[in-house]
Write a structure and sequence with these properties.
Blueprint (H helix, E strand, L loop, with lengths): L10 H9 L9 E5 L2 E5 L1 H7 L1 H9 L7 E3 L6 H13 L10 H10 L11 H13 L3 H10 L6 H4 L2 H18 L8 H6 L4 H13 L4 H15 L21 H18 L12 H14 L3 H13 L6 H8 L11 H22 L9 H17 L7 H8 L11 H13 L5 H8 L9 H8 L6 H74 L12 H11 L32
Parallel strand pairs: 1-3
Antiparallel strand pairs: 1-2
Helix pairs in contact: 2-3, 4-5, 5-6, 7-9, 9-11, 13-14, 14-15, 14-16, 15-17, 16-18, 18-20, 22-23
Length: 582
């Protein structure tokens, strides 16, 4: 039997010496777990562990003095508690150590089949009664499984508690039992990314809503990438610090890159699942961490889908580094804007069947204004080349801009920051805007702007004069049309008055004629009777005729008819005769 030297006792052996129940019996075996040695008794260990019994029985040495258990799940801490259990020393089982203890007990075959009331049975009872009782305890058990992989998977601990956690998380999402309602997302945020991914997948299988999944992903990202994602507004700091070495910084960046690349594939397919400021923040993280192309393309695609809700600050988050001192990436911006324009084009043509260059949606017009304002912000940086400036501005269709004033402001800022450009380069920068679409104030400013090339100034002046002339011509034409209409209306009114007068005259003549005719008929009827009567008095018309005859200037040269009385006309009916043929 080999007795270890007192000078070479490890800390583990010093601790075990405090709880071995019979120190007068010398230890007969040394158990090695990693770098720790435990001086123990073979018969006590073999009484509880079928694995150790087999090792002793199958050993080729007649007197086995050392057993190597370096591969035991849970390592030194787990084996120390197993040894205490073998020696009858009490210790506490918690949700944080039950998983390593259970796996170590199964590894050493400390089951009830070998010995009644063994450690594996007790840890299983604890898992069934305490481990699954609450979400917090289940998360703690699953988290402790990370250090004992892959053995925890073999004994079905991981899948078992992933199912428990997903069930409780879905229940809390639908029927919150605590305040705030999303408290459960904070519980899941303590898991490692692999365990978290398994929980999210299990929640999706249970039919969790996409907003529920999105809430958990946002909280987890904020917790695990706290240094890069702070408040979705671009706040955050780079992972490099003055006290950390280059190797530590690269290691940390690699870890964060793996986390980000594991989170993005978990996103729900719905485009409205995440706010756009969160997506822009993650895209900036992907660019900074040099994530895979697939990761960046997925984030760019999601930003493109809801670009109409973007703000200038969101776009600047993607563009600038964390310190805000330099441009980080413009290729992503070009792909995002280009993708949105193509999406709007296909949507407009498919739904309305019209020409995209003539009909632009409100979303397209809003994005155009946002992009022009964004160009004015980045134009102030000297490192921005003409090709990159023009490359983004020309992506917006010209018809989508109601006015080019914002674009003119961006061009003016760019020319101010880059004073050494020659005339050709200035014209190239100014080629992205249309002077005809500038407001009057902008054209006046452009005509006095010495930074603009001469050609653009002349264009501004020409279009201004053209606008004024066209306005005067339109005014003259409007006056002429109004005068013609008024004249035509006046002529119509005069014609109507004449027609009314003629009708009135005709009606008076007709009335007088009928009155005279009635009076003549009455006079003739009275003179044709056989019985004598008074002499008929002259009528009004006869007397008037006589008087007029006296005033006739042609009386002496014409036949005088004034002495002729008005003879009565016989108006009696003639006798009816019968005509017959005899």
């Amino acid at each position: 039997m080999a007795t270890p030297s007192p000078t070479r006792l490890s800390l583990a052996m010093e601790r075990t010496g405090q709880w071995i129940f019979s120190p007068e019996i010398p230890a007969d075996v040394i158990v090695t777990v990693g770098e720790a040695d435990f001086s123990l008794h073979k018969f006590i260990l073999a009484a509880k562990s079928n694995y150790i019994r087999k090792v002793i029985m199958e050993s080729e040495e007649s007197d086995l003095t050392r057993i190597d258990l370096t591969n035991i799940p849970g390592g030194q801490e787990a084996f120390e508690k197993l040894a205490k259990f073998c020696y009858g020393v009490n210790f506490e089982i918690t949700v944080h150590n039950v998983a390593p203890l259970h796996c170590a007990a199964v590894f050493l075959q400390m089951t009830d089949e070998y010995c009644n009331g063994n450690l594996a049975g007790r840890t299983e009872d604890f898992l069934s009664q305490v481990g699954v009782s609450t979400l917090h305890s289940a998360v703690a058990v699953l988290k402790s499984c990370q250090q004992i992989l892959p053995f925890a998977v073999e004994v079905n601990l991981v899948d078992r508690f992933v199912d428990v956690i997903s069930s409780k998380a879905c229940s809390e999402a639908n029927f919150p039992s605590q305040s705030p309602p999303n408290w459960w997302t904070e519980e899941l945020a303590v898991l490692d990314v692999d365990s978290f991914a398994k929980v999210i997948a299990a929640m999706k299988q249970r039919g969790a809503k996409y907003l529920t999944i999105a809430g958990a992903l946002i909280t987890y990202t904020e917790r695990t990438l706290r240094e890069l994602v702070r408040d979705h507004s671009g706040g955050g700091r780079a992972i490099v610090s003055s006290k950390s070495s280059d190797s530590d910084s690269e290691s940390r960046r690699s870890e964060q890159r793996e986390i980000l690349q594991s989170i993005v594939p978990l996103f729900p397919t719905e485009k409205a699942a995440f706010p756009i400021n969160f997506l822009c923040c993650l895209l900036r993280c992907a660019i900074y961490l040099r994530a895979s192309s697939s990761c960046k393309r997925e984030l760019e695609k999601r930003v493109t889908e809801i670009l109409e809700h973007v703000t200038v600050d969101d776009l600047l988050v993607i563009t600038f580094s964390y310190d805000g001192e330099r441009l980080l990436d413009l290729d992503s911006m070009r792909r995002i804007v280009s993708g949105f324009v193509e999406k709007e084009k296909s949507t407009t043509v498919f739904n309305a069947g019209v020409n995209f260059n003539e009909h632009f949606s409100a979303a397209m017009q809003r994005v155009a204004k946002i992009v022009d304002t964004y160009l004015a912000e980045i134009a102030a940086y000297g490192e921005l080349s003409i090709s990159k400036f023009n490359g983004i501005s020309i992506l917006i269709p010209r018809g989508a801009r109601k006015s080019d004033d914002d674009l003119y402001r961006a061009v003016d800022i760019y020319l101010k920051v880059h004073p050494n450009l020659d005339e050709i380069e200035k014209e190239k920068v100014c080629s992205v805007m249309d002077p005809l679409k500038l407001s009057y104030e902008a054209r006046v400013h452009a005509s006095k702007n010495k930074r603009l090339p001469l050609q653009i100034v002349l264009h501004a002046l020409y279009y201004d004069q053209l606008h004024l002339r066209s306005g005067m011509a339109e005014d003259k034409e409007a006056v002429a049309v109004a005068a013609a209409v008024e004249k035509k209306q006046l002529q119509a009114d005069v014609s109507l008055v004449r027609e009314n007068e003629e009708l009135r005259s005709e009606l008076m003549k007709m009335k007088m004629y009928i009155t005279d005719l009635q009076k003549n008929v009455q006079g003739t009827s009275s003179s044709g009777k056989e019985t004598p009567g008074p002499v008929k008095r002259p009528t009004f018309f006869s007397s008037m005729s006589k008087k007029l005859s006296k005033l006739n200037p042609f009386k002496n040269g014409s036949k005088d008819t004034s002495h002729i009385d008005d003879a009565p006309v016989d108006l009696t009916k003639p006798r009816r005769r019968r005509f017959s043929i005899s």
